[in-house]
Amino acid sequence: MIFYFFRLTLALFITIVLTTVTILLGIFDRHGKRVYCINRLWTWSILRIGRISVTVRGLENLDPSEQYVFMVNHQSNIDIPILVQSLSRFQLRWIAKKELLWVPLFGWAMWATKHIIVNRSDPGAARKSLERAKRRMAAGISVVVFPEGTRSRDGKLLPFKKGGFLLALQTGKNIVPVTINGSGHLLASGDWRLRSGNVEVIVEKPIITKTFRVGSIRSLSDRVRQAIAAHLRPLGSFADGRRQTSVQSEYRPGVGETPSLNL
Q1: Is 251 helix (H, G, I), strand (E, B) or coil?
Q2: CATH architecture of 2-249
Q3: Full-model pTM
Q4: Angle, to 10 degrees, between the axis of helix 217-229 and the axis of helix 163-171?
Q5: DSSP state for residue 114 in the 8-state scheme
């Protein structure tokens, strides 16, 4: 218990320091691309301190020079650090509800890093958020969408919302289905205790959106849902108690290229 609280204190200290730096530098960073490097450092630290091991499969399906709309299942708040480290070749921004901006430190850092904030109660504001997302992608940034809109408590997929699919169709960017297994056990919805353990991230091949139209969002949503569900495992199946501290990948770099996922 003493060791756990030591790790918790260390995580809070690092969070406060890096968040403060992010907020100060983010004022002068139009798209948040520079301060995003601080996000990478923070997420690496959280996973390291939490003794969370992440195995990533399917990175060979992606082109690091492209921008994508990553569609991901959502079980835990730890999903965010997991994705930042798993997709470290990409600048990532989240589509998030505006209420998160009021969360001390976390919300302020989201603003500084220029994540895409959505006011779900105001259709006009939602359209402006969509325009901001387009500008971010035009600047070389990929967008992460949790199509369920909230965390699943039992690990099963919830109904998908259509906003992220509309963004992909309007920008012409391809959708990459991503499945996270094991995060729900490490930091369950409504729980503050971060447990050590193992997480698996599976990256599917991009789905070409040019073959779909706005009127076929339902068909596109079903295809993405099937791709995520195909790799989804029962909640807690990775709770085997191992204590690893590295992010591993099956991606094989080309000549002259070094892996960026080993911690």
Answers
A1: coil
A2: 3-Layer(aba) Sandwich (3.40)
A3: 0.84
A4: 110
A5: T
